[in-house]
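SAMPLE LOG
Freezer: B-3
Tube label: C17
Construct: single chain, 226 aa
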Amino acid sequence: MRESKVAICIISGGMDSALSMAIAKDLGYEIVGVHFNYGQRTQAKELSCFRKLTADLGIIKNYEIDLDFFSQIGASALTDKSIAVPTGGVEEGVPVTYVPFRNGIFLSIATAIGERHQAQALYIGVVEEDSSGYPDCRESYIQAMGKAIDLGTRDETKLKIKMPLVALKKREIVQKSIELSVPLEHTWSCYQSEYKACGVCDSCRLRLRGFEQAGVEDPIQYAIPK
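STRUCTURE (predicted):
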């Protein structure tokens, strides 16, 4: 009989996944952190943030997974530098920054790690209503993946996907992060810059709007005045 409970946390280095991990920790889970290097433009910065966050919040084990095939596939502005990152505001339809089936692949790998550690929960920081319109961030999709995990793992595996932020706005994510003392200065959201956040890509816009609506100063540096 296990005395402790374990959660696998997919941690990009961004604000959403950092808060998701903090929520799991606040609920008493021991944390196994999983980070993916998949050829994204800000890979080095995101990896650095992942390492800082996991050190800040304290976890039992880190996994850093390299997935080079996303760059081979291309088809996303995040992994193909021949496709420009949009900076003009919200796009119609699925944005060009969508990485094909990324969350499905991440969840599959994290599930394998979850079985290894006999984890009870798998945390992912997807946000549906205030996200960029990615199809793999929808609550219905994550729920369907949960059913697939139940069918595709051992009978004794009781791994449940948790998505505590899925219905939150960025303002609420900022507020909750402050409440749980998430080190937001060690998070990164920008799609295209690793030194100073660009402030104009869709992810930066969402982040800045969230901080503005929460009435809180964003602790990271931007290339343009905030």
